[in-house]
Amino acid sequence: MKKQVYIVDDHPLVVDALQNLIAKSEDLECIGSSDSIEKAFSDIETIKPTLVLIDIQLKQNQSGLQLLKKLRTVFPDLAVIIISMLTDDTFVDRAFKLGAMGYVFKEDTTTQIVEAIHTVLRGDYFVSSSQATRLLGHLYKNSQKEEKDPIDRLSNRELEVFLMIGEGKPIKEIAANMGLAASTIETLRSRIKTKLSITENEKLIRIAVEWKYTQAKPDALAL
């Protein structure tokens, strides 16, 4: 019996590429896809796939990490792999802490993506060779210093706001995207400034844009 895979990604070309990749594996089949948290959760609740592939950045600035957290609470045994173009250790760390069993970069080879799926389906955790090297370096650096990266101090919700600030979005738009009041976003922004030791909004925007730019690697899933 084939293992059933569900895809959560808002890039149609990436979804098509992943579906084609899965179709080439004799023991796998793609049983659905979605580009939003709401539809994905509804589908997964109904279809009950074996494994879910989730992108972190979804449509309307939704975060795949939110879906991961919800799935882990409701379906604790569901296998989940994050597949993203975000390569910063912050996202990798948070994904595993929230219950992901694998983290794959979209720039990784198709062989590694298939290997990740099969590894996680066996009940093991997966990181690509490039990730393993970087994570070891990250762990070593952390062991050599007491001070954390300031970005690591941000909560998941604060990190979402920080990312959207880096995209140049105003407070009202961020509030609408997250389904929160503008005053709540302003409070979150104040907490971000405090944690990053920033006093001016202009400086926060500049730092957020610069940090966002370092994450802006193009999707490289060419199958």
Note down, in words, how this protein is organized.
The chain has 223 residues and is of the alpha/beta class. The chain is 53% helix and 13% strand. It has helices at residues 12-23, 37-47, 64-74, 89-97, 110-121, 129-144, 156-166, 171-178, 182-195, 201-215; strands at 3-8, 28-34, 51-54, 79-84, 102-105, 126-127. The protein has a 6-stranded parallel sheet, with helices on both faces. Helix 7 (156-166) crosses helix 9 (182-195) and helix 7 crosses helix 10 (201-215). The relative contact order is 0.12.
Features:
223 residues; alpha/beta; six-stranded parallel β-sheet; 10 helices; 6 strands; 13% strand; globular; disordered C terminus
Mean pLDDT: 85
Percent of residues in β-strands: 5-15%
Q: Sketch the major β-sheet.
A: 6 strands, parallel
End-to-end CA span? 25 Å
Task: Return the structural class.
Answer: alpha/beta
Q: Estimate the global geometry from the Cα principal axes.
A: globular
Integer-rounded radius of gyration: 18 Å
What is the count of DSSP helices, taking H or I runs of 4+ residues?
10
Helical fraction equals 40-55%
Give a count of the beta strands, DSSP E runs of length 2 or more: 6
Strand order of the largest sheet: 2-1-3-4-5-6
Sequence stretches where pLDDT stays below 50 over 5 or more residues: 217-223
Spell the H/E element sequence. Answer: EHEHEHEHEHEHHHHH
